[in-house]
């Protein structure tokens, strides 16, 4: 029975293999392995893990991950009185004897994760769906979440934004796209897959840019790293530009004038928000005269470091932010620290009638709202900058292309469209 092979091309076995390639946490892999074995990690499931996961992994680059996974796998099997494959135990013993703990903890923290987007039956007509129904994107990143600020970790909002791009390729096809805070480059790779006419990826960290360039080349994309004032007009090349929000100038940004701006988890630091909003205001306004007016007006509003005050004398009371014609109400009793439901955030300018103008470019921002005060600050600054924010999470809900990724909580992420207000 142990010799009978399971087919890794079909669920749930496909999900287990994809989760391993994406380096999902070990307890999630064990959970998927139980599903494959009908509740237990059987010998057949162990053989699948050995043949298509452990035996094909690069043990040098992910030794610590493999060691931890094998340890938990062995404990799971033995605790249920199962029969353990000799190969799995021997591989674990090899890691125990040949690799010192110091080397594991202080070695190369960079690993290769393979993100597999799985297209189900309802996605077959999408031009983004490959004939194999599986799009695999290799990424060099870090297992150390402390390196997240260097852009070497994959964050949930970038996964959501990538699913959005692949689910609605018609929005991005033949469009000029610009991403703020591009991290590992996953969003840019998905944009290339749906044939965006021009892709510009930006980040303020040089380590991030270097890692991003390697990921783009790993996915067979031509790259060009430069600063904004040295832009070349080559639509076939993905451009990686060094751009810190606080130092970006209007003249630099006006060289790009994209059709679509994208951002994943960029609403996180109140001190950075004025600069982010200023960048968005310039990129989303195609007319130079209005861009100059926007720059002049932000001198005293966006960049002076003054934020709206959130009122409410009791932590259990609802809070209202008053910013000119914008009121934001949040009921603390319904607040979810992992994300805010769209119904919990209401604003007079967050309505579909104002946001449906297609006269200018649009931004799509995917974000987990971890701090409602920070999000209120973003809304207020955007309102001052003459930008309209609309929650389009339900309207533009992407397909679940990562069904195997249990660590990825899609329900905590919201998608917002940002555009310049229509003036009459």
Along the chain, the helix and strand elements come as: HHHHHHEEHHEHEHEEHEHHEEHEHEE
Q: Structural class of the helices, strands and pairings?
A: alpha/beta
According to CATH, the fold-level topology of the largest domain is: Rossmann fold
Instruction: Report, as a whole number of angstroms, the end-to-end distance.
Output: 74 Å
CATH domain class name of the largest domain: Alpha Beta
Helix proportion: 25-40%
Number of strands: 12
Give the name of the CATH superfamily of the largest domain. Answer: Vaccinia Virus protein VP39
How many helix segments? 15
Mean pLDDT: 80
Number of structural units classed as domains: 2
Pfam families: Methyltransf_16
Protein name: FAM86 N-terminal domain-containing protein
InterPro entries: Methyltransf_16 (IPR019410), SAM-dependent_MTases_sf (IPR029063)
Give a quick set of tags describing it.
two-stranded antiparallel ribbon, 34% helix, eight-stranded mixed sheet, 424 residues, 17% strand, Rossmann fold, 2 domains, 15 helices, alpha/beta
Structure description:
By secondary structure, the chain is an alpha/beta fold. It folds into two domains: 11-103; 110-286 and 360-420, Rossmann fold (3-Layer(aba) Sandwich). It is built from 15 helices and twelve strands. The protein has helices at residues 13-21, 26-36, 43-52, 63-79, 86-98, 101-106, 156-167, 169-172, 186-193, 206-218, 250-253, 273-283, 288-298, 352-355, 372-384; strands spanning 110-118, 134-142, 176-180, 198-203, 223-226, 238-242, 260-264, 319-323, 326-330, 362-368, 387-391, 413-420. An eight-stranded mixed sheet has the order 5-6-4-3-7-10-12-11, with helices on both faces. A two-stranded antiparallel ribbon has the order 1-2. α1 packs antiparallel against α2 and α7 packs parallel to α9 (186-193). The longest helix has 17 residues, at 63-79. This is FAM86 N-terminal domain-containing protein. It comes from Tripterygium wilfordii. Pfam families: Methyltransf_16 (PF10294).
